């Protein structure tokens, strides 16, 4: 059966799937080779015996039949062993590869992962892994067919040396043409990989923006046009690649016809050859066709799996690069859960620019936050508040300056331990399906928090999960708050947490929750736009264009009549 191309990746990393499997099967290589050779020989023997018996059926004794039966048995056991082991080995490699990639994702720095994007990771870990998995059987078959082919050619050499020379010459010409033409495949495969990721990106855009597309016909038509365009180019490149494979397949068939033609039309004119030998040669040449076609039709799958292997290894390299700074994380923990004063001295952070564009940067920033202090970070949209939080929490490594916690400088060697002292709810927070990091937590305690967050009856907590996570944004943020409270870490970081809460719960957050955290000795760093609650902070840090504009000690709570409207004060802050 022909193997079709459905979209393959390409990359510069250098290895192939056979090397990959053989490296993995180092101890088993001799056994695999013996089993594959045994299967190949017995397969050839079966066909040779059948040809022999067909020539003179009356001369056949029981020993020929027993040899025939033995060859079948050897083939079955040899082939079974090779196929099963190759599948096991490939699946084991893929299992290890996936867990290694997941580990590297975990170790990657946030900025590195943000640059990489999710489409490439999804594609490599699913599509490419499936390609390699499917190719295991095909690759084994190709290797076995090559062995059978070699034995069949040896059989031809035994029958007639001139015929062997003819076969060797025509097969060499055919294969040289085939492989030369197949080289045209590499750029097509690379193009396919790029197009497939672009397709995934557009599809993700459509799915994430589903509501928006439902509301706008023009938007939906335009995004559809973009997806169709990517999909069409995926189809065209895939079609080109498959046509190339088809032509190569036909080319090998032509080599076969040339071989048969040369055997019957050319050879007898130049070499003395008996009719019986010629007939055996023709049978052998026809027999050669099977393994050759099988090997050639399996070759696309082999090429695809090679590209898939290269792409996965290239992804690993990118993840390694993203993990550089955090390579030795967990090595040190100087704080033992007590980070002390957090101090930023001349700290700067710059996003990596794309296509030479100037990127946004914050700093230089000088800021110290005492344990137990409540600090609000305020400022207009895009002033760098969230970026500052990510640097402060050690998620973005400062590109200049020093971040200290207590007496210790936060460095790649200890940043993971520093992060362990912080609970954070970012504006794009994620609620995990289970309360990872808190598995086995006391359910009664969680239920009390559900009551405090006014979520009883909306969801419940059973077996380490909130029974329902499809809640309103404000309610989901309350669930995230429950997780943060359960973590019970000394530093709490909230990025516009109150923004999606109703007035009553917003008041609860500022007037009760934050003071109760303070009473428990927690440091709270919160991004806020709620100017009417700025008095709840010990200090208010105002950011503007990535720099700290002012740091003010909070004024006492204003009387109700003097509270400005939220709009007034926001515009004042921005002016
Ligand atoms: N992942 C990123 N890569 C590159 N630039 C980014 C990235 N995230 C944010 N920026 C840039 O950093 C600037 C500051 O963004 P940031 O989210 O820190 O602002 P903010 O003060 O929290 O804004 P808002 O009040 O709207 O949440 C933005 O203008 C944006 O251009």
UniProtKB/TrEMBL annotation:
The chain crosses the membrane at residues 32-54, 60-83, 131-155, 161-180, 249-267. Residues 342-570 form the ABC transporter domain. Residues 555-575 are annotated as: Disordered. Residues 32-304 form the ABC transmembrane type-1 domain. PROSITE patterns: ABC_TM1F (PS50929), ABC_TRANSPORTER_2 (PS50893). CDD domains: ABCC_MRP_Like. It is found in: Cell membrane. GO terms for molecular function: ABC-type transporter activity; ATP binding; ATP hydrolysis activity; ATPase-coupled lipid transmembrane transporter activity; peptide transmembrane transporter activity. GO terms for biological process: peptide transport. It is a multi-pass membrane protein. GO terms for cellular component: plasma membrane. Keywords: ATP-binding, Membrane, Nucleotide-binding, Transmembrane, Transmembrane helix. Its main location: membrane. PANTHER family: ATP-BINDING CASSETTE SUB-FAMILY B, TRANSPORT ATP-BINDING PROTEIN CYDC. This is Cyclic peptide export ABC transporter. The lineage of its organism: Bacteria, Pseudomonadati, Myxococcota, Polyangia, Polyangiales.
């Amino acid at each position: 059966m022909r193997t079709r191309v459905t979209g393959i990746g390409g990359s510069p990393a250098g290895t192939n799937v056979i090397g990959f499997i053989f490296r993995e099967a180092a101890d088993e290589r001799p056994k695999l080779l013996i089993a594959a050779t045994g299967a190949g020989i017995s397969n050839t023997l079966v066909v040779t015996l059948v040809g022999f018996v067909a020539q003179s059926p009356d001369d056949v004794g029981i020993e020929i039949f027993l040899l025939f039966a033995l060859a079948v048995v050897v083939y079955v056991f040899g082939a079974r062993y090779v196929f099963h082991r190759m599948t096991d080995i490939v699946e084991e490699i893929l299992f290890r590869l996936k867990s290694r990639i997941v580990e590297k994702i975990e170790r990657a720095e946030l900025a590195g992962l943000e640059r990489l994007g999710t489409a490439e990771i999804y594609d490599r870990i699913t599509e490419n892994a499936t390609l390699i998995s499917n190719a295991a059987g095909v690759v084994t078959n190709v290797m076995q067919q090559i062995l059978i082919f070699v034995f069949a050619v040896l059989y031809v050499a035994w029958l007639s040396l001139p015929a062997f020379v003819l076969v060797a010459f025509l097969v060499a010409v055919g294969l040289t043409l085939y492989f030369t033409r197949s080289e045209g495949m590499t750029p097509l495969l690379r193009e396919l990989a790029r197009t497939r990721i672009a397709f995934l990106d557009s599809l993700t855009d459509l799915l994430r923006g589903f509501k928006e597309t439902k509301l706008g016909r023009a938007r939906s038509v335009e995004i559809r046009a973009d997806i169709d365009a990517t999909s069409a180019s995926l189809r065209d490149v895939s079609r080109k690649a498959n046509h190339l494979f088809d032509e190569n397949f036909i080319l090998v068939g032509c080599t076969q016809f040339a071989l048969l033609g040369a055997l019957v039309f050319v050879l007898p004119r130049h070499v003395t050859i008996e009719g019986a030998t010629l007939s055996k040669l023709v049978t052998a040449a026809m027999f050669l066709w099977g393994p050759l076609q099988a090997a050639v039709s399996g070759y696309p799958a082999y090429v695809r799996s090679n590209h898939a292997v290269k792409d996965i290894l290239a992804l690993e390299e990118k993840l390694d690069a993203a993990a550089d700074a955090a390579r030795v994380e967990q090595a040190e923990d100087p704080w033992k859960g007590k980070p002390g004063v957090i101090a930023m001295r001349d700290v700067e952070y710059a996003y990596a620019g794309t296509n030479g564009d100037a990127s946004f940067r914050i700093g230089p920033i000088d800021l110290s936050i005492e344990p137990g202090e409540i600090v609000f970070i305020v400022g207009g949209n895009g002033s760098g508040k969230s970026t500052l939080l990510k640097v402060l929490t050690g998620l973005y490594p400062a590109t200049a300056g020093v971040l200290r916690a207590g007496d210790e400088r936060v460095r790649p060697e200890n940043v993971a331990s520093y992060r362990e002292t912080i609970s954070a709810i970012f504006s794009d927070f994620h609620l995990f399906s289970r309360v990872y990091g808190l598995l086995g937590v006391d359910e009664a305690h969680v239920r009390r928090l559900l009551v405090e967050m006014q979520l009883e009856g909306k969801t419940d907590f059973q077996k380490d999960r909130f029974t329902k996570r499809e809640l309103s944004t404000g309610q989901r943020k309350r669930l995230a708050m429950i997780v943060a409270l359960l973590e019970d870490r000394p530093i709490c970081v909230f990025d516009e947490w109150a923004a999606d809460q109703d007035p009553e719960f917003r008041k609860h957050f500022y007037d009760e929750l934050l003071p109760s955290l303070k009473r428990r000795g927690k440091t709270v760093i919160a991004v806020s736009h709620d100017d009417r609650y700025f008095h709840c902070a010990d200090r208010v840090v105002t950011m503007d264009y990535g720099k700290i504009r002012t740091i003010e000690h909070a004024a006492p709570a204003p009387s109700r009549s003097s509270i400005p409207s939220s709009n007034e004060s926001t515009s004042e802050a921005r002016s």
